[in-house]
């Protein structure tokens, strides 16, 4: 059985939840609010699934996770604004959605004049590792020139990035915070796999920004993600290939290669294209 069954997935935004009929890895599930601070998730056969409420979302699993949902310590920082961006449905593999989030090279071409701009297209050398402690993929020392790095940015800056993959369909990105040099803004991508080729994406942020309105913060991130959606829905093949022989490695996609290796090592293959048996 695919090891992804025993992982945690976001299935609703708690603040907006009443009752939501949705799907997780091909199975129909129902997510319902129970009072002020509890939710219940039920499978189509009536089975009660495990539930966690964290980072504004309801999380569940079809299997039996042997570990807790990953930690984002910045979520507990009272000075940060926690931004629930909401849902974006994408006709793509859940693994493709994460891989695209890890890709820096597309910024100047997809998020033109916001997260990147020509002629600043070169991805400088950075570091990628699979950290044994916590078993996560990390990319660090990533630097990229950005005309409008965040809603809070006024003018172009060289932005520092770190990426983290703590779960097969989740990624957390840390980037320079324009109004607070030395601090990191946190932007997470939580992906709910509906099927192997359709997912719902829940971006979520923990930012230092005392001036932008919540609506503006949400709209900025939605605009960025809608630019990604058109790219994601046209990827060929639809599923993420995990055979390293198919790839020509370049510096820009070192993170993607590490992510694919890590998925393969763990048998996280829901949404992956496997080599013919
Ligand atoms: Fe993007």
Layout: helices, strands, pairs:
Elements: E1 9-13, E2 19-24, E3 27-33, E4 39-43, E5 48-49, E6 51-54, E7 57-60, E8 81-84, E9 88-90, H1 94-101, H2 107-110, E10 127-131, E11 136-146, E12 157-167, E13 170-176, E14 184-193, E15 199-207, H3 214-232, E16 240-241, H4 254-265, E17 272-273
Parallel strand pairs: 16-17
Antiparallel strand pairs: 1-7, 2-3, 3-4, 4-5, 6-7, 8-15, 9-15, 10-11, 11-12, 12-13, 13-14, 14-15
The chain binds fe (ii) ion.
How many distinct helices? 4
Radius of gyration: 18 Å
Share of residues in helices:
10-25%
Helix-strand makeup class: alpha+beta
Distance between the termini: 16 Å
Descriptive key words:
277 residues; alpha+beta; 35% strand; binds fe (ii) ion
Description:
It is a single chain. By secondary structure, this protein is α+β, with helices and mostly antiparallel strands. It is built from 4 helices and 17 strands. The chain has helices spanning 94-101, 107-110, 214-232, 254-265, and strands at residues 9-13, 19-24, 27-33, 39-43, 48-49, 51-54, 57-60, 81-84, 88-90, 127-131, 136-146, 157-167, 170-176, 184-193, 199-207, 240-241, 272-273. Strands 8, 9, 10, 11, 12, 13, 14 and 15 form an 8-stranded antiparallel β-sheet that branches. Strand 10 (127-131) and strand 11 form a beta hairpin. The chain starts with 8 loop residues before the first strand and ends with a strand. The mean pLDDT is 93. Residues 106, 110-111, 228 line the site of fe (ii) ion (FE2).
């Amino acid at each position: 059985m695919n090891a992804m069954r025993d992982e945690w997935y976001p299935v609703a935004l708690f603040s907006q939840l009443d009752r939501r009929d949705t799907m997780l890895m091909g199975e129909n599930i129902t997510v319902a609010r129970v009072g002020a601070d509890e939710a219940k998730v039920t499978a189509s056969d009536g089975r009660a699934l495990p539930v966690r409420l964290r980072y504004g979302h309801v999380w569940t699993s079809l299997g039996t996770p042997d570990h807790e949902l990953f930690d984002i310590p910045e979520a507990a920082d009272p000075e940060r604004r926690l931004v629930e961006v909401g849902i974006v449905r994408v006709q793509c593999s859940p693994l493709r959605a994460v891989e695209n989030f890890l890709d820096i090279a597309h910024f100047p071409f997809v998020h033109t004049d916001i997260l990147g701009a020509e002629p600043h297209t070169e991805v400088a050398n950075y570091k990628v590792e699979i950290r044994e402690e916590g078993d996560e993929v990390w990319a660090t020392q990533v630097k990229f020139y950005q005309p409008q790095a965040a809603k809070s940015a006024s003018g172009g800056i060289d932005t520092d990035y770190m990426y983290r993959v703590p779960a097969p369909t989740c990624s957390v990105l840390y980037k320079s915070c324009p109004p607070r040099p030395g601090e990191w803004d946190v932007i997470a991508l939580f992906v709910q796999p509906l099927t192997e080729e359709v997912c719902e994406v829940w971006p979520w942020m923990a930012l230092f920004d005392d001036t932008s309105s919540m609506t503006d913060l949400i709209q900025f991130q939605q605009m960025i993600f809608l630019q990604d959606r058109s790219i994601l829905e046209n990827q060929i093949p639809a599923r993420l290939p995990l055979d390293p022989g198919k790839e020509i490695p370049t510096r820009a996609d070192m993170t993607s290669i590490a992510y694919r290796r890590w998925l393969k090592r763990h048998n996280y293959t829901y949404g992956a294209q496997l080599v013919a048996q």
